[in-house]
Structures are given as structure tokens and as C-alpha cells.
Write a structure and sequence with these properties.
Elements lengths: L1 H4 L4 E4 L12 E10 L8 H6 L15 E7 L17 H7 L31 E5 H7 L2 E4 L7 E8 L13 E5 L12 E9 L23 E7 L10 E6 L5 E9 L5 E7 L12 E8 L3 E5 L6 H10 L6 E2 L12 E9 L4 E10 L6 E8 L1 H5 L4 E13 L1 E5 L2 E2 L3 E4 L8 E11 L3 E8 L5 E9 L14 E4 L13 H4 L9 H10 L7 H16 L16 H40 L1
Length: 589
């Protein structure tokens, strides 16, 4: 109904043949209608059969019949079920429809073949009406042409980064609303925008296109969108959202700008792989299409992508970003899983986080190191955060700050299937938060296996609960240098400061995966129960003072249980002996 209101061309396709509908065939959607104020008696048969709304989800409670007018481009062969040209259900619909208080101009004779509301041709010309539930069962997909009235569209040339470059975003664009134009709908305060990334193909090579002679292989493509509250001046991203499309030739996202809010949106296309057999400039097109006039301009240089990636992974999402209106359900991306964590009783020192962007054919997984700068700076000794990463996958490549990584072939795949690869990475002397690696789709057949993170401990004799995660050297922290601080050299993989707000947000999860929230709450409650008990002195005077309070509480509980068990055992033995003595005395009497 939204697309119809905006007069956007729509089409649909089938998978199987049924009820007069031809399988594996394309149709056009001519009209979409809702017939309201329909009485309950109209739905009686389907209610008795239990089939009403079990496909679309709509029930009789709203008293609405939803219809679509479809056309077979062959000009013949029509739907033969309910609401076809000669279906008796039209008469039943009219008998159960009331004006509901509306004026007479809103009521039409739905049984008439040439009704101005629901016109029927009454001949086999390929044009027919079909109800929404039957439409969902008979048709496989819906396509919408984003050709808004007024043709508010603009294309910009862009380029993929060089194969060895760490700056994976070469161009960025700024979107902002413009004052309402003459003749524009005054009630519409929203501007709907679709952003598309379009890559080259060989199409046109047979017709003399010299630039299409090569067999093009698409690159992985993602689009990040940042929200900027300041209307003027340098770009300061407050929140970042986005979507990764994998090796799709074209992918698009939907944005909504509010005229009442003075915000700018920054569009940042990025890629972690590289295209094959393309032109020297590695070019692709970024296209903007809106339902109202829009101001789009290219920035002099992209924002700092290391900060954008951190905000995308851990920051708040953009409410104006979504996939409503796309031609297929993409699914959600950006799920975080903590692979390894070092923490104390109150906060964490660091987390290694896996960011899942595989749904909807995204084909991208990010590995991020999040360091608690505040806790790290307060430590009296220098602590090198060191660990190794093992990635098992098929048909995927891995990029780090040093470029594309080499892999070993674990096992060869079956015919026409990619072989299993293993990437072995090592990260030593890390000190600040940064993107560690990006694992992206490298071919049409791909699959992510397991990602394992193991600590690298240089000093196994080091004391403290974090010794298995970090290496300790007795050196002043002031002399510690960050080797990834240079953005010009390391680009999106360079380090970035972690603010206190993000630390507080991450401390709430205590390092657990989202699915394990119940376990996290249970363990937290268990810790509170231990802490609330009266402490028991288990240690000698010369015991180390740095013993964890939680460990002490657990040991206290164990020993207390053993003491209670021993006491009960002694009492049971005493009772048995007492009973024997009483029985013996009775026998003597």
C-alpha cells in the first residue's frame, strides 16, 4: 500500500504453477486495494476451516479484505480461485459490506464488472484480482522499482581501495534535507532515501563495450552510515550503523531523514577484499534515490574509519536506518560474541569480540580488540596483551593491518566446492582498542567454521587472575608505546581510544554472549549471595592479602558445608549409640 501510494512500479514472480498461475513466470502488479467495513459473515467459511490469516497473519477482526490486481504479460491465463473475474465471492463480499458511516460517495457496487473501485474485464486477457493470502501462497517474490516521481536520483563514481591499502573506504558522502519545494506534499516530514552500491559486469561486452571485455569478479561491499548532529563544521559521528552485502553486484540500504531534525547522514562504502579483472581505477557506482529533493555532496576525505568501526560495533544504532521496503528480508547483522576476556571483580581489562555480519549473504566477520583504557592506565606495571587467533573457513579471505593473510589448506573440498582454509594469526604487545582482522567472502561458495582465541603467556609464573591472558614485564607504563597509533599507515586497523561510556556499557554484560544473559544473571546473584554471608577466616596471618574475596567466599561455603556434614554425621552416630543403650537397659529390666 505504501508503494502504491508513491506510485512505484511493482512486479512479482512465481515458483510453481497452481490455480491458473504459471510457474517460473514474471507478472506485474497493477493495483493494491483494501475493502473495509466487511461483515463477519463473509469470513465464516474460512473461520470454520481454520485457514483465515494463517498465511498473512490478518484476521477478521479488522473487517478488511486485501486484494491485488495482477497482469500476466502474455495477455492470457489467469488466476481461477477466489476473486477471479467470475468468482461468486464478489456477490458475497457486497452482501457483507456496509458503508460504516461513510457517505454514499464511498460505496460502490462491487458486483458490477466495471466498478470504478474494483474493475473486472470478464475475459481471459491476463488481468485478474487475487486476495492477499492466496497471493502469498501463489507468488514467490515482489520487486519494486524505486522510480520516485520527480526522479530525485544521482549517481557518484567511487573506487575500491588498492589491494594492499589499509584505508578501505576511499570516498564518503554527506546527505542533508533541503527546504520544502513548491508543490511538494506539506504533510510529509520524512525523506526516504535508498543508497545503492553498483559494481560492473560483462553486460554490454557483446555490443562493443570495450570496458566490459574482462570477466568481472565483484568485491565484497558494505555501507556504513554515520549520524552527525552538528549541522556545520568537521564531521563528528555520534552513532554508526551499516550493512555488508558480500559479493553481490548491487546492494542497497534504506535511510529516512527527518526535516524537523537538524542532522546529517554520512555514507561510507567500504570493502575488505578486492575486485578481480576490473579496470585500473577499481571503479564502482554509488547511487542515491529519494522520494523528495535531497542534498548529496562528496566529502573532501572520509571520516576516520577506525572510529567509525568502533561505533558501528559497540555504539547505539541509528533509528532512521533499516531494511523496510527492500525486496527481500536481509536479516540482522552486528551480533557480538566475546571470544576471550580478562577481567577482575569490577571491570574488564580487554575483550576479543567477534562481530557476525553473515546474515542475508553479508559474508563478513570482524574481530575487534576492546581495551579498558582507564583500567590499563592505572596499572603500575606494563602489561602486554598477547594472544593467538585460529580461523577455519571455506572460500573466505582474511585481512589485518599487514594486508591479506596467507593460509594453509586443511582439506580439499568436493567438486565445485571450496577447500577448508586455516588462518593462524598472532597478536602481541597490544595496548589499545582496534580492529584486528576482517574475514570476508572470497568466492561464491563460502562458509565460516570456527574462530578460536588462545592466550600467549610469556611468563607463566606471574601472579594474579589475568596471568594466563597477559604478559607481565616490570616496566613503567609511561614508557609503553602504541605501535598502531598512526592512522595514515594503518587506516581502519589503527588504534582508537575507548571512552568511559562504552566501558560502562560493556561492563553490564560482564563479557557474556547475548544468549547467556540468564547464566550471567544467575552467576551474579550467586556472587551476591556469597558476599552477603558472614566471612569466615580461612587464612593464616601470613597469607597473601590479594586473595580474591569471591574465592574466599566459595572456599568458606565449601568448608562450612563439610563442617555441617561432619557435625551431622557425629550426631547421627551419637543417636544410634544412645538408642542401643536404651534398648539394652530395657532388656536388662
Amino acid at each position: 500500500m505504501t508503494f502504491r501510494k508513491k506510485r512505484l512500479p511493482m512486479g512479482c514472480g512465481t515458483s510453481n504453477s497452481q490455480g491458473g498461475i504459471i510457474g517460473m513466470h514474471a507478472y506485474s502488479i497493477l493495483d493494491v486495494r483494501e475493502v473495509k467495513n466487511v461483515g463477519m459473515d463473509f469470513f465464516r467459511d474460512k473461520l470454520a476451516q481454520g485457514t483465515l490469516g494463517n498465511v498473512s497473519g490478518f484476521t477478521e477482526l479488522d473487517g478488511t479484505v486485501r486484494l491485488l490486481r495482477i497482469r500476466n504479460p502474455h495477455g492470457k491465463s489467469e488466476w481461477k480461485g477466489d476473486f477471479s473475474d467470475k468468482s461468486p465471492i464478489w456477490q458475497k463480499l457486497m452482501e457483507n459490506r456496509s458503508n460504516g458511516g461513510a457517505d454514499s460517495s464511498g460505496v460502490f457496487d462491487l458486483t458490477a464488472p466495471k466498478s470504478p473501485e474494483l474493475k473486472r474485464t470478464m475475459k481471459d486477457d491476463g488481468v485478474f484480482w487475487i486476495d492477499y493470502d492466496s497471493f502469498l501462497m501463489g507468488f514467490h517474490n515482489v520487486d519494486v522499482v524505486l522510480a520516485f516521481e520527480g526522479n530525485h536520483a544521482k549517481s557518484f563514481g567511487s573506487n575500491f581501495a588498492a589491494k594492499s591499502s589499509t584505508h578501505r573506504c576511499t570516498r564518503a558522502f554527506e546527505l542533508s534535507v533541503v527546504p520544502r519545494q513548491p508543490g511538494e506534499d506539506s504533510t510529509n516530514d520524512k525523506v526516504e532515501v535508498y543508497v545503492m552500491g553498483i559494481q560492473k559486469t560483462r553486460r554490454g561486452a557483446t555490443h562493443g563495450r570495450s570496458d566490459r571485455k574482462k570477466s568481472y569478479k565483484a568485491s565484497d561491499l558494505g555501507i556504513l552510515v554515520g549520524e552527525c548532529n552538528n549541522a556545520e563544521g568537521p564531521v563528528q559521528l555520534d552513532s554508526v550503523d551499516g550493512y555488508f552485502f558480500g559479493l553481490t553486484r548491487n546492494g542497497h540500504i534504506r535511510l529516512v531523514l527527518d526535516r524537523s531534525q537538524n542532522k546529517r547522514l554520512i555514507v561510507m562504502p567500504l570493502s575488505f577484499g578486492h575486485p578481480a579483472a576490473t579496470d585500473e581505477e577499481r571503479s564502482f557506482v554509488v547511487r542515491f534515490c529519494a522520494d523528495s529533493p535531497l542534498l548529496v555532496s562528496e566529502l573532501a576525505e572520509p571520516p576516520k574509519m577506525n572510529m567509525a568501526i568502533q561505533k558501528y560495533i559497540f555504539g547505539d544504532k541509528i533509528h532512521s536506518f533499516g531494511h523496510f521496503g527492500t525486496s527481500f528480508h536481509r536479516g540482522s547483522q552486528g551480533k557480538n560474541t566475546v571470544l576471550m576476556e580478562a577481567k577482575n571483580d569490577y571491570s574488564f581489562l580487554f575483550k576479543v569480540v567477534q562481530v557476525e555480519c553473515m546474515s542475508g549473504g553479508g559474508g563478513t566477520v570482524l574481530l575487534y580488540l576492546l581495551v579498558n583504557d582507564e583500567l590499563y592506565s592505572q596499572m603500575s606495571v606494563k602489561q602486554d596483551i598477547s594472544f593467538s587467533v585460529e580461523i577455519n573457513c571455506r572460500g573466505m579471505v582474511t585481512r589485518t593491518a599487514t594486508g591479506l593473510q596467507q593460509h594453509e589448506t586443511v582439506s580439499k573440498g568436493e567438486k565445485f566446492k571450496a577447500a577448508w582454509r586455516r588462518f593462524s594469526l598472532s597478536f602481541t604487545s597490544e595496548t589499545r582498542s582496534r580492529l584486528l582482522a576482517a574475514v570476508v567472502q572470497g568466492g561464491q561458495d563460502f562458509q565460516l567454521g570456527s574462530i578460536k582465541v588462545e592466550p600467549i603467556s610469556k611468563n607463566a609464573d606471574s601472579l594474579g587472575p589475568m596471568n594466563k591472558f597477559i604478559s607481565l614485564d616490570q616496566v613503567d607504563t609511561s614508557s609503553k608505546s602504541d605501535k598502531y597509533t598512526r592512522y595514515d599507515e594503518f587506516g581502519v586497523f589503527s588504534s582508537v581510544a575507548t571512552n568511559s561510556t562504552l566501558i560502562a556499557k560493556m561492563n553490564k554484560t560482564r563479557g557474556f554472549v547475548m544468549e547467556d544473559q540468564e547464566l550471567a544473571l544467575a552467576l551474579q546473584k550467586s556472587k551476591q549471595d556469597f558476599d552477603s554471608k558472614t566471612p569466615i577466616d580461612l587464612c593464616d596471618d601470613d597469607h597473601n592479602d590479594d586473595k580474591s574475596s569471591l574465592d574466599a567466599a566459595i572456599m568458606a561455603s565449601i568448608m562450612e558445608q563439610e563442617k555441617t556434614h561432619t557435625s551431622r554425621k557425629k550426631k547421627d552416630t551419637y543417636d544410634e549409640e544412645l538408642e542401643k543403650a536404651i534398648a539394652l537397659s530395657l532388656q536388662n529390666k
